[in-house]
Amino acid sequence: MLSLRKLRTYRSLRLFIALFAIWNVLELLYIQSKAAQPTPVSLVPPGTRVYIASIHWNNEAILRSHWNDAVVELTRVLGPHNVFVSVYESGSWDNSKGALHELDQKLGDLKVPRNITLSETTHKDEISRSPASSGWINTPRGKPELRRIPYLSRLRNYTLYNLLALAAAGKTFDKILFLNDVVFTTNDILTLLSTNSGSYAAACSLDFSKPPSYYDTFALRDIHGHATVMPTWPYFRSRTSRSALKRNEPVPVTSCWNGLVAMPAAPFLPPQNLAFRGITDSLALKHLEGSECCLIHADNPLTRERGVWVNPRVRVGYNGPAYSAVNPVDARGLGSGGSWLSGWQVIRGLWENRIRRWLTTAWVEEWIVKRRVGKWMGEEKGRREDGVHCLINEMQVLVENGWAHV
Questions:
Q1: Is 397 helix (H, G, I), strand (E, B) or coil?
Q2: pLDDT for res 3
Q3: Any transmembrane segments, and where (predicted)?
Q4: Which of 23, 253, 296, 297 is most open to solvent, judged by the fewest CB atoms within 10 Å of its CB?
Q5: pTM assigned to the model
């Protein structure tokens, strides 16, 4: 009798292992087949007008190797009469100014409307000024310091100045395209602009500096407002966001930036006047901070109606090797050269994600943030912050060579 029980147990175990293996193989094949599907050639509606905005600091290498040429090619395809290029460079100590001057000349040859501002004001200049009434904070280092996020918000809003001026003159745009210092192609942009047939409050790429980990952890939040559970595929804690990613379809999220972002232009114009911002200084004093690239979606009146989406078919890199690693090509040098995810990345990612979700929770970190926001709201009547999901337990300030945690 004991031997029969052992035999049945052994057979059941073998059956379980076989079914487990089959399930994993089928899921792997499904995900890789979806990830390997060629991205259809995307065409934006003829006459679509795109306002291109970008900020730069010490980006000479990527400007000269990829970015300038990519912007020039993009304006050719969209049509110089359909675009405006707005670039703000802020006190770089490399030769970013020289690289952007070359871009200015190339765009001028194409008669592309543009404004490329090259600022001599460095980080040292910014932090050496007398503290202003906002954007500065008394830090644990015992002195007032310039907060990083209000500073970045100011630079991003500079790039939108001409959008407002042109609108006042009767020249409007359909989309705003925000470009980070990334490697991208025109087809990447056309695919991004065509996300959900062009219906979105925002559409973002996925960005990579050191694949397979994605880069912009500060701004990306799943559809339930949670930070990602891991830096590698499939990233998200939310089942809804993960499921769309597995299908290689636009992923519903609460916030994203991740290298390239397309947004309708209308909310940035009167009467909404959407703009980048940081949280108030009084809230930042609670040792909290939130990305301006997340808060913009919390403030956008179109977010609830049209949603924010990550398009996993658009993957960009902060250097050439990173871009190549997540954009395989075939023997002719054309995409797609198969799945951008290896079998090991898929299997390991699926199970690491499950285990992390089973053994960890976002509740503790989010509770700390919500408790501090609640305390801040209780200190003065009328206080409100709509971007609580953007906030993290950090304090960030500008320093001469970048920024720092304090």
A1: strand
A2: 75
A3: 12-31
A4: 23
A5: 0.94
